[in-house]
Write a structure and sequence with these properties.
Number of helices: 17
Oligomer: single chain
Distance between the termini: 73 Å
Strand content: 15-25%
Structural class: alpha+beta
Shape: globular
Largest sheet: 7 strands, mixed
Length: 720
C-alpha cells in the first residue's frame, strides 16, 4: 500500500506558479473574445450637481465610435435591486462626487473609445460641495451599524465615572488619511451577453456573490449569470463586490449587442474605486498606578458619501483587546460629496489599532512601565465585550516570543537618547488582531474512472495562494498525491462560496472541500472502492455545520516589532528591521503564509511612512491620483522583515484547525513603527503618514524641549 505524505502544513510550492511565470494564466482582460468593443467612461468635472445636457455629436463623428451612453439612453437597471447606490451607473442626472461616471463611449477600438470620451461635451448645474472631513462637522451622526454589524455606539460599565476616577490617564487624538488600493491588476472586465445570459470575465474576489448582485441589478436569474475570475492580480477588498466599471461594461455590452471590454487606467483607479476612509480618532485610557486599565474610550470620526451610509468598524478591536471593566466606543460619520469609501485590507481594524496601540504605548510611558508588560498585565481571561471564552488567544505568547527574538531586553526605555552617528535609533511594539471569520460554502468532489479526482468550488485566488492551499486540503482529505487531483476555482457556476475577503477564504472554502472529499470516500466505500461507470460525485455544504459550532469568541493575534532610525539633520526615516509573530491556528502552507505576512507588513510600513490621498477642497478631487504623487513602499523602503508563526491548536473553528491570515499582518505594523519613531526621537507623531516634514517638525520640538530642560546647553544638530 502506497503511503501518502501529509500536504497540509507542508511548504508546498504554488501549483499555479508555472502558469503565471510563463503567461499561461489568463486574467480578466486576456480572455479571447470575438467581435469585442471597448468602453471608456466620461467622468464628472464637478463634485456635486446635475447633468443638464450631454452632447454626443463630436464623439459620434469619430471613426469607430458605436454609441455614447448617458442617463437618458443607457439600459435600465432594476431599481429595486438590493445594491449599493453607487452601482446604479448612468441611471440618474445627479452628480454625487468628482469623477463619477456621467457618460460613456463605446467604440471598436480602445483608442477610438478614449478619443470619443474626450470629445463628449457635458453641461452641469453646479452645486456647492464639501469634501473635507472635520471633527466638528454639524452633520456628524453616530452610525446605525458598522461593517461588522455592530452598533455605532457600544458601552459597558460607566465610562465617564471611571475616567474621572482614573489615577493615570492619557487622552489624545490620532488621524489616518485616505488610503487607496493599488493592486497590480486594475479593475478589468469583459462583458458578453447571449440573449438574456450574461458572462463576465472579471477581476473579482467573489465570483458567486458577484453573480448574485449582478443578477439582481440586471433583473435576470442567478443561473443566467456567469462570473469568471480564474486569476486575479490583487484586490485588497476593492474587488470584493463588482464596482461601477463592471456594471458599465455590462450596460455597454447590452446597449451595442456585442462583447465589451474595460480596464481602468491607474488614474481612473484613484477616481472610480473606493478607498479607505480617513479617520479622526480620540482615545482615552484610564488606569490604576499598577497599570491595570479601568476604562477605554475610543471615538472615531470618518466620512461617507451622500449615496451610501458606509461606516467602517474602526473601533471594534478596541472592545475586546484588553481587560477593562468600563468602555465606550463610537463611530460617527459625516456625509460628504465624495465617492463611497469601502473595504481596504483589514478594514477598520488597521486604522483603529494604529490609534489604540499608539495610545497604549503612551500610557506605558505615563506609567513608567514597559509597553509589553502593560499589554500582558491587561490580558483578559474572556472576551471583554461578549463575555464569551476565546476559542484560542495567544497574544501573550506572541509578545513574549517576539521580545526574545527581537532583543527587547536590551532596550533602554528612555526615548530619544540612543544615537549612532547622526542617526537617532528607537524600537517599538504593537499588537495585531483580526477576527476569525468563517462563512458557509459548498464544494463538489468527483472521482473519475481513470483514478483521478476533481474538486470544484467557487473560490477566488487573489495571488495569496488559495489555489495551492485548497489543493493541499483536498489531497489530504482524499489521501492521494497532488498529481491525481484537479482543482477548479474562479467561476460563479462552481457553487456557493464567499468572497476572498475578511481573511475568511481558506477557513470557509477549505471546510467545504474537506467535507466534500471525505464524503466522496465514504460514498466510494459503498461501491467497494471501485469508481462506477461515469464517475462518482458528491456535493457538500457547510451551512448547518457552522450553525452547530460552539459559541466562542474567535480571533487571530500577533505582535509587531520595529526598529527605526531618524536622521537628526534631515529628518529622514529608515526602518531597519521588522518582526511579526503571529498565532492564527494551523498554518496550511508555511511558504505562502510567510509571503502573505511579508506583504501585509510591507503595506503597514507603507501606511506608516508614505501613503496619503490628498484631497483638493476646491475641485473635490484627489490632487494625487497616480504613483507619481501617491507613494507606496518600493524595494528600497522595505527593511529586513522576519515572520514567525506560532504553533496554535484550535479545532473549534473548522476541521482543518485553520484560520485566516491575510489581513492580520498589516494590523499593528504602523503603530509599531510610530512607537519606534517616538522612542528614537522622544516626540510623538499622531498623524499618519510620518513623512519627512512631520519628522522634521518632531525633531524641532525635541530640540526645543531639550533647550528648556535644566542644565541643557549643548549645541544640537541643525534640523532642515
Amino acid at each position: 500500500m502506497t503511503t501518502v505524505s501529509r500536504c497540509v502544513g507542508a511548504p508546498m510550492t504554488r501549483v499555479d506558479g508555472l502558469d503565471k511565470v510563463t503567461g499561461a494564466a489568463r486574467y480578466a482582460y486576456e480572455f479571447p473574445t470575438q467581435g469585442v468593443s471597448y468602453v471608456w467612461p466620461v467622468q464628472a468635472t464637478v463634485a456635486r450637481g446635475r447633468v443638464t445636457a450631454v452632447d454626443p455629436a463630436p464623439a459620434l463623428a469619430l471613426p469607430g465610435v458605436l454609441t455614447v451612453l448617458d442617463h437618458t439612453n443607457a439600459p435600465r437597471l432594476n431599481a429595486e435591486a438590493p445594491a449599493s447606490a453607487d452601482l446604479f451607473v448612468l441611471q440618474s442626472a445627479q452628480v454625487a462626487y468628482h469623477g463619477q461616471m456621467v457618460a460613456a463611449v463605446v467604440a471598436t477600438s480602445l483608442e477610438a473609445a478614449r478619443e470619443g470620451a474626450a470629445a463628449v461635451r457635458v453641461s452641469y448645474e453646479r452645486e456647492p460641495h464639501d469634501v473635507v472631513l472635520r471633527a466638528d462637522d454639524e452633520r456628524l451622526e453616530i452610525a446605525e451599524t458598522v461593517t461588522d454589524g455592530s452598533p455605532g455606539l457600544v458601552e459597558r460599565g460607566d465610562a465617564d465615572t471611571a475616567w474621572a476616577a482614573a489615577p493615570v490617564r492619557v487622552d489624545n487624538t490620532y488621524t489616518t488619511p485616505v488610503e487607496h488600493v493599488s493592486p497590480m491588476e486594475p479593475h478589468a472586465t469583459i462583458a458578453v451577453w447571449d440573449e438574456d445570459r450574461l458572462t463576465l470575465f472579471n477581476s473579482d474576489q467573489g465570483p458567486y456573490m458577484s453573480a448574485q448582485l449582478l443578477s439582481a441589478l440586471f433583473g435576470i436569474e442567478l443561473s443566467a449569470v456567469e462570473v469568471v475570475a480564474e486569476y486575479i492580480g490583487g484586490g485588497f477588498g476593492a474587488k470584493g463586490i463588482p464596482r461601477s466599471p463592471t456594471v458599465l461594461a455590462a450596460l455597454a455590452a447590452r446597449a451595442v449587442g456585442r462583447p465589451v471590454k474595460i480596464a481602468l487606467t491607474r488614474q481612473q483607479m484613484f477616481q472610480l474605486i473606493p478607498y479607505r476612509s480617513p479617520t479622526i480618532q480620540r482615545v482615552r485610557l484610564g488606569a490604576g498606578r499598577d497599570g491595570r486599565l479601568t476604562v477605554i474610550q475610543h471615538d472615531s470620526v470618518q466620512q461617507r458619501s451622500t449615496l451610501v451610509p458606509f461606516a467602517d468598524q474602526t473601533v471594534s478591536s478596541t472592545r475586546m483587546m484588553y481587560a477593562a471593566p468600563n468602555a465606550r466606543t463610537t463611530v460617527k460619520v459625516a456625509p460628504l460629496d465624495v465617492m463611497t469609501p469601502a473595504w481596504f485590507r483589514a478594514p477598520g481594524h488597521t486604522p483603529g489599532m494604529f490609534a489604540l496601540e499608539s495610545a497604549i504605548d503612551e500610557l506605558a510611558e505615563a506609567l513608567g512601565m514597559d509597553p509589553i508588560e502593560l499589554r500582558i498585565r491587561n490580558e483578559p481571561a474572556n472576551d471583554p465585550e461578549s463575555g464569551k471564552p476565546f476559542s484560542s488567544r495567544n497574544l501573550v505568547a506572541c509578545l513574549r516570543e517576539g521580545a526574545a527574538r527581537f532583543g527587547w531586553e536590551h532596550r533602554d526605555p528612555a526615548p530619544g537618547i540612543r544615537r549612532e552617528g547622526r542617526w537617532l535609533v528607537g524600537t517599538g511594539v504593537a499588537a495585531s488582531h483580526h477576527p476569525d471569520y468563517t462563512f458557509p460554502s459548498s464544494a463538489v468532489a468527483r472521482a473519475e474512472e481513470d483514478g483521478t479526482y476533481r474538486v470544484r468550488i467557487g473560490a477566488a485566488d487573489l495571488g495569496t495562494g488559495a489555489r495551492t492551499a485548497l489543493t493541499q486540503v483536498a489531497a489530504d482529505a482524499l489521501a492521494i498525491p497532488v498529481s491525481r487531483l484537479r482543482l477548479e476555482i474562479g467561476r460563479a457556476s462552481l457553487g456557493m462560496a464567499p468572497f476572498a475577503g475578511g481573511s475568511l477564504g481558506t477557513a470557509s472554502w477549505g471546510w467545504a472541500v474537506d467535507k466534500a472529499c471525505r464524503a466522496l470516500l465514504k460514498e466510494l466505500d459503498v461501491y467497494g472502492g471501485v469508481v462506477p461507470d461515469g464517475g462518482l460525485e458528491v456535493v457538500a455544504d457547510t451551512t448547518e455545520d457552522l450553525g452547530q459550532r460552539a459559541d466562542l469568541s474567535r480571533h487571530t493575534f500577533g505582535a509587531q516589532f520595529a526598529q527605526v532610525r531618524v536622521d537628526a539633520d534631515t529628518g529622514e526615516i529608515r526602518v531597519d528591521r521588522m518582526l511579526g509573530v503571529f498565532a492564527a491556528g494551523r498554518i496550511v502552507n508555511p511558504h505562502t503564509a510567510r509571503s502573505q505576512f511579508l506583504g501585509a507588513m510591507t503595506m503597514g510600513l507603507s501606511m506608516a511612512l508614505l501613503e496619503i490621498g490628498e484631497v483638493d477642497p476646491v475641485f473635490g478631487d484627489f490632487a494625487n491620483h497616480d504613483f507619481a504623487g501617491y507613494h507606496i513602499a518600493a524595494h528600497a523602503d522595505v527593511p529586513r522583515l522576519d515572520v514567525v508563526c506560532l504553533e496554535e491548536t484550535d479545532n473549534t473553528s473548522n476541521p482543518m484547525g485553520a484560520k485566516g491570515i491575510g489581513e492580520l499582518g498589516i494590523v499593528g505594523a504602523a503603530a509599531a513603527i510610530g512607537n519606534a519613531f517616538h522612542h528614537a526621537t522622544g516626540e510623538r507623531v499622531r498623524d499618519l503618514p510620518i513623512r519627512i516634514e512631520r519628522s522634521r517638525e518632531a525633531l524641532r520640538a525635541a530640540r526645543s524641549a531639550e533647550k528648556r530642560r535644566p542644565g541643557a546647553g549643548e549645541p544640537e544638530p541643525r534640523v532642515g
